[in-house]
Design goal:
The chain is an alpha+beta fold. It has a single domain, classed as Alpha-D-Glucose-1,6-Bisphosphate, Chain A, domain 4, CATH 3.30.530. Helix content is about 30%, strand content about 35%. The protein contains four helices and seven strands. A seven-stranded antiparallel beta sheet has the order 1-7-6-5-4-3-2. Helix 1 crosses helix 3. The chain is elongated and about 75 Å long.
Length: about 180
């Protein structure tokens, strides 16, 4: 009896692992927002890592977050490194493509709490005086991520952060300049 239960358990684990292994080798999470400003006013908020402090969804995770900026001031070659508590983690971003005012591609390296290398992209598309902004992250899914993905998808894990970040970007971009009445 115990042997039969053990065999069923081993078979179930094997089926689960095979199922996980057959999941896609890559992931993509993408969110969108329409901002009531032209792309030329929004682009600098994305293309300059210093400006991310005003809208990034992860800015509030650690009040003592350590930030280091390097490379170019903005655009291609700009680098942002961070280190913080267990929620913020440690990582590095570098802008590898910057096509003003329509596109930014970022290489993203997470170091802690886990190692991962992904790419992130922003696309801005003019719609009259408004701009449709898309924010995506994509990359490889190693086996352990495939196993975890059976229970929690990358979309569910990161989608809310992207939605919050785009809502904050919209609020910052649409805010009247300082000193003007609201």
């Amino acid at each position: 009896m115990v042997m039969n239960v053990l065999l069923v358990l081993v078979a179930a684990v094997a089926v689960f692992l095979v199922y996980a292994a057959m999941r896609p080798d890559t992931f993509r999470v993408e969110r969108h927002v329409v901002i009531d400003r032209p792309a030329e006013e929004i682009f600098p908020l994305i293309d300059d890592f210093h400006a991310w402090r005003r809208w990034s969804p992860w800015e509030d995770l650690d009040p003592a977050l350590r930030r280091t900026y390097g490379g170019a001031e903005r655009g291609k070659g700009a680098v942002y490194e961070w280190g913080g508590n267990s929620r913020a983690g440690t990582g590095r971003m570098e802008i590898v493509r910057s096509d003003a005012p329509t596109h930014v591609t970022i290489e993203l390296a997470f170091i802690k709490p886990f190692r991962a290398e992904n790419a992130s992209a922003f696309d801005l598309e003019a719609q009259g005086s408004r701009t449709a902004v898309s924010w995506a992250i994509y990359g490889p899914l190693p086996f352990i991520s495939k196993v975890m993905g059976v229970f929690v998808s990358m979309d569910r894990l990161m989608g809310k952060d992207f939605e919050r970040g785009l809502a904050r970007l919209k609020a910052v971009a649409e805010a009247p300049p300082a000193g003007l009445p609201q």
